[in-house]
Amino acid sequence: MAFKFQRRDKRLVVTRRGLMAGSLSLWVASRPAFAALVATPAQTPGPFYPRTKPFDSDMDLTRIAGGSEAALGEVIEVQGRILSAKGEPLGGAIVEIWQADSFGRYNHPGDLQGRDANFQGYGAVRTGTDGSYRFRTIRPRHYKAGSLVRTPHIHFRVVTQARAELITQMYFPDHPLNASDGIYLSLPGEAARQAATARLVENPIPQYHFNIVLV
């Protein structure tokens, strides 16, 4: 199912050389209720937000409707909650993700050469009443961005029922390329970098828990 927005997507198109620094923050649900929530800062959408939404854009990016083969790569799940600054669940919000495949390629006209044709590349879901979302996808590969090498990451776009919007990125814990990724390193200090990284739970496939807090 493809979601439509009134806002123009033209503003999301940038070049790889135009990647901007930013960060995002993770609220771990097991933290005490009285702890302050950290707002998830915006990050660049990158150059590969879909120009046209694919006909199959559900929560399972590992298979394309009508296809006989699954995407290549390690299957993972990404899940979490969309919350307000007060910790209130934001039900009915639209959560979009887009990412590179196991070859480091996006499902985008500007990056089609050598991509996995069985990988959906983009998905969109609506959060439940508790603000929860979930995607089944594959672990993205790193890729070159001009003279830079981007560490594996997943792009997020969240639009609430009140039309508040956030675009950000999710990083993977303990990946060696995190230590050399310019956007990741631009985060202000180790605490911010830890907050920008998903929490891994094996159950039985890798599950990455990533909450997003909007202000």
How are the SSEs placed, and which strands pair?
Elements: E1 75-84, E2 94-98, E3 122-126, E4 132-138, E5 143-145, E6 148-150, E7 153-159, E8 165-171, H1 182-185, H2 190-195, E9 199-202, E10 206-209, E11 212-214
Parallel strand pairs: 1-10, 1-11
Antiparallel strand pairs: 1-4, 2-3, 2-7, 5-6, 7-8, 9-10
Could you characterize the architecture of this molecule?
With 215 residues, the protein is mainly beta. The chain has a single domain, classed as Protocatechuate 3,4-Dioxygenase, subunit A (Sandwich), CATH 2.60.130. Helix content is 5%, strand content 27%. The chain contains two helices and eleven strands; from the N terminus they run ββββββββααβββ. The strands form three sheets. Strands 1, 4, 9, 10 and 11 form a five-stranded mixed β-sheet that branches. A four-stranded antiparallel β-sheet has the order 3-2-7-8, with no helix packed on it. Strands 5-6 form a two-stranded antiparallel sheet. A hairpin with a 2-residue loop joins strand 5 (143-145) and strand 6 (148-150). It is globular, with a radius of gyration of 16 Å. The model is unreliable at 4-34 (pLDDT under 50).
Number of domains: 1
**Quaternary organisation:** single chain
Percentage beta strand: 25-35%
CATH architecture: Sandwich
| Main β sheet profile | 5 strands, mixed
